[in-house]
Amino acid sequence: MASVRTGAFFIGGDDMTQTQKNITELKEKIKKICQACGRNVDEIKLVAVSKTFPIEAIEEVIETGQMAFGENKAQEIRDKMESAASKEIEWHFIGPLQKNKVKYIAGKTALIHSVEDEKVAFEIDKRAAGEGKVQDILIEVNISGEKTKHGLDTHQAQTLIQNLQTFQNIRVIGLMTMAPFTDDEQVIRETFKGLRLLRDRLQLKFPLIQELSMGMTNDYSIAIEEGATLLRIGSAIFQR
Description:
The protein has about 240 residues and is of the alpha/beta class.
């Protein structure tokens, strides 16, 4: 996957809309955080979470050089992919995925971040095969153990990854998690660190597992410090 990864900018100064200014400032902040913690910014991909915003808002952001966008509803991403078919957008599906909605995204998106069920994975494999594609996916892990969050525990995640090794049209390339919504930075850090350590252990057996999708508007700086390779950021970019 790679490359923010920050993108070139084709507009500037007073010609920018507020949304364009937001993403420009965000990418500068990402670069500074990387410099401060000794990371290469090219290791990080920013996924602009455009859920509920119209295709026009996405087109504004494209003008800044940003091409990776995330959506959390299958029918909404389907409609946007159709509306923007002429654009070279890299679409990411980041929301909970039901088996009956797989047909809208499998083999059509760059990455599905939120796989936590073998039946859903089987459907992704089948649909991707029908598209003649191999679908890259991440396994969603509930590192914090919160009952209100989606995702598998670490043992379940390893079992699922093992079971998916025989699937021909799925490629597990990493893990995804969400940190608790809290002001306690240590709790957030431990969540992200836990995902990184799990990734490192899994890599010994499954070397394709590289990506760490973690970090949103409220906690992306900690996620970068703990090794995130994919940031899912929406409200810092798109504002009503």
